[in-house]
Amino acid sequence: MGGYILNNNLSFIYGPIGYEYSADSYMGNMQIVNCLSYAPLRDYPSTTGNQVLRVPLGEIVTNVFYHNDKFCYCVYNGVEGYILTRNLAWVSGGPNASYDSSWIGDAWVVNCSWASLRELPDTASYRLAKVPKGARVTGCYYVNDRFACCTYNGTVGYILVDNLGW
What we know:
Elements: E1 26-32, E2 38-42, E3 51-56, E4 60-66, E5 71-76, E6 79-84, E7 88-92, E8 103-109, E9 114-118, E10 127-132, E11 136-142, E12 147-152, E13 155-160, E14 164-165
Antiparallel strand pairs: 1-4, 1-7, 2-3, 4-5, 5-6, 8-11, 8-14, 9-10, 11-12, 12-13
């Protein structure tokens, strides 16, 4: 069905240049798991691919696309690459989002002049960014009754739920 949607109701999800993935390949945002301290982000979907950087255990990678049974394409802090599928666990977005009651989607900062995007879901945690009132945050989901995990300008962090509106 054809139609029109306001641009501010859309967010950009991109995949790797040179590969075409279908919408069915999009998996959402995922967390690094099943490793001692980090998962290598590689430039090529192979264990012989160059390690571009190390993604620490527990961190969130975005724009995850299924590549094959062994690797997924993803983005971490603006850097693209491939991570072993066994090192990823779903947290938000993608086809699972419609079944997840913690999924919020996109939201806007309200009730303050700016909200803190925190490294952890704790008001004492390091502030990654000041998000101004009215700014849009994407890929949000509740992590507890006080905080939601959100993406702002490519940075994934935690914002107080009281500072978010839909």
